[in-house]
Structures are given as C-alpha cells and as structure tokens.
C-alpha cells in the first residue's frame, strides 16, 4: 500500500480514473467491492483506487491488504470518524486521475463499469460533466454469486431489485425533465465527475458530518457552478453497481437527514433547495422547481410581479414596516429593520432570499405582513395551499396582490395562472378571515388569520 501520491495531472486520450471508496465498519462489504474492481475490463494501469477508512471500530486495513498486489491501491485512515464528506475529500486530494468515480464500500461494480465511466468522459473530451450510474438493490442470492466471483445475472437480481430512482424516471416526461434539477438524483454510490469541476467547487461540504444529503449538495453546487447547464448531467444506464444489503437503523438515519436538510436550507436559501426539502418524491420536487423557474421567467416576460408598479398608496403602507415582501424590485422598498424580501432581481443576502415561500424556516408570526405580488398566482393548487399556510404561520396578515399588469391565461400556457379572484375568495374563505380591496386597478385578497 502507498501513502498519498504526488499530483501529476496530464490530459491524454486515455486519462487515469480515480476510484474513491470511503469505508466505515463494513470490511465484509468492502471485500466484495474490491474484488469486483479486480475483474474490470478497464486496464489496471488506467485506474487507481483510493480507500479511506473513516475511523472504523474494526479497521478495514486487513481487507485492503489482501488486494494491494491485485489493484493499484492507496489506503488512508482517519484516526477518528469524521464523516463521509471529509473522508471523500481526503481521497479526492490523494488521487491523480482527471476523472473521479465515487463508489461506496457496499457497491461492487459490474466488470464494465469503470470502462463505461472512463469512456463517457473521454467521449465528451473531458469537458465538465457528471455521469450517474445505476445501483441495483440485491437479495441474498446475488450475494452468493458475488462471493463466488460471479457477476449477478437476471436470475438472482430479479425484476424488482432495481435502482431506487428507476420508478421516478419511468414516465417519458420524468425522463425528459430530470435535467432541470439533476442534482436531486445525484448519489455518490456510483457517479463520476471531472476533477477540474470538483476542484472548482471545493469538493464536499465538510460541515455535513452525519448521513444524508452531502452528495446532493455537492451536485447542487456543481450544477449551479456551470450555469444550470441541462447538458451537464447524464444517466449511465449501463454503468452498474450492486447495492449490497446491510444493517441500517432507518429512524436514526432519517433524523440525521432531517438535520442536514435544515442546514442545507440555511446554506442555500433558494426555491430549488426549498422544494427539495418539501414533502414528496424527487420527481415531484423537480416538477415544482421547473414550474417555479418557468413562472419567474413568465413574470419577467409579461411584467408581472413588479413591486415598483404598485400604486403609491399600497407602497406607502409597506414602508418602515416589518414585512416579507415577495416580488421583483422588493429589495428597493424601505422596509422596517425586521423586514425581509424574496426579490429575484437582487443578489442573495442576509435580508434577501430566493425562496418560493412554501417552507421558509422563519419564526412564527415573524412579520406584520407577508405580501406577494403576482407570484402567488402562478402556484399550482397544492403549492398555493402550502404557501398560504406557511404565510399565515409567519405573518399576522397575508396580502395576495394582483397587479394591474395585463395578461391573459392564454398568454402563459402551459403555465397556469389565477385569474378569477372571486373563485379564490370562495375557495379559501372557509379557512381564513378575508378582506378584498382595490386601489387603482391593483386588487388584493388579504388573509387576516385562520377562521376559528
């Protein structure tokens, strides 16, 4: 085994692939993963394996030692458990390859998997890109096959041991749309990315120590670093690993994930991360993100959501008040010291976030008023309901403002827009005390609190 090698990156037509494998107390699983790497079709002089033991109670070094003469292998160990982010970053720093493939210790690879990842990146000229492979869940029969050194086939994998993302991508619309927020599907159990991109974004966030979300967060930053390029992420359906069954205490892991999601919501106060944390599956999260992105674009095209177009008497009511003001140009209004804005024209900052408003993380009754100019009209029914409930929770009064901007529903199709305020009034009146006002063509439906 070697210590950390020197970095000597040279772009060639046959680049080195670095395989990053974090390990913690799972030597029996790591054994099968390392064995699978000895069976790869990619020549051994074209890849390296970096295993980092994250302070295991039972060190995995004896397992690694059995493969030191069979693989181009580097073994590193953390003295104490520091989490998967730190561990993967250490492996990335130790590697020499221009392509980095993340595998988990419980992910034996199909014999062609490393070659498929390498060929994909070479085929794209080593440009910034991410390939997400498939991880097939296994039952006991496939474990026996792997222990015999065999590649599991359909007889032992079966019809139902698929990648957990498969059902979310089955419908043609889901397969089309996932690239609008591909980081949601980004898992580092079988994914590769060019090293230059990893270096540019700084690797994994080492504040994420416990289980869950650190891989999504890395790919979130990668996606936005490259300007939300919908050609950046790709699905590698034939780049397959096998997800070995292992013991998990799911209530504990879900509690850790919940804490991590709170951290991510604070770190990235944008609507896409907000919808990622909202209840529902990943496909629904992407649909909500797409819809809100498209709504913002439509507002810009048609002059909707412009706070500066509101009548002077309406704006005067907001000045020096502790309000949450949602709309383009909101940050230019002189609010009170406790005010905050969701102004998508202005940069993110302590007082200005880019949330949609369905999950804000703000305190109960924080604001005198929550005011949304037009943006509320482009929510789908389920999101509008969530927005109203959240707004009533954080604000003593909620103003749904319909500006005087002229637009017909047909102008926005396939986006939907609330055009009939009377229908909205009738719909929500059983749940909230309402007041409807009009000033110079600007109409407002105000929620004065829940009924009862």
TrEMBL record:
Pfam families, alphabetized: Glyco_transf_7C (PF02709), Glycos_transf_2 (PF00535)
Enzyme class name: transferase
Q: Which InterPro entries match?
A: Galactosyl_T_C, Glyco_trans_2-like, Glycosyltransf_2, Nucleotide-diphossugar_trans
Note whether Glycosyltransferase occurs among the keywords. Answer: yes
Give a GO molecular function annotation for the protein: glycosyltransferase activity
Identify the domain of life. Answer: Bacteria
Indicate the segments forming the Glycosyltransferase 2-like domain, all copies: 18-117
Task: List, for all copies, the residue spans of the domain called Galactosyltransferase C-terminal.
Answer: 192-227
The answer to keyword Glycosyltransferase applying to this record is: yes
* Enzyme Commission number(s) of this protein: 2.4.-.-
UniProt KW keywords: Glycosyltransferase, Transferase
**Which protein, by its recorded name, is this?**
Glycosyltransferase family 2 protein
Species for this entry: Polymorphospora lycopeni
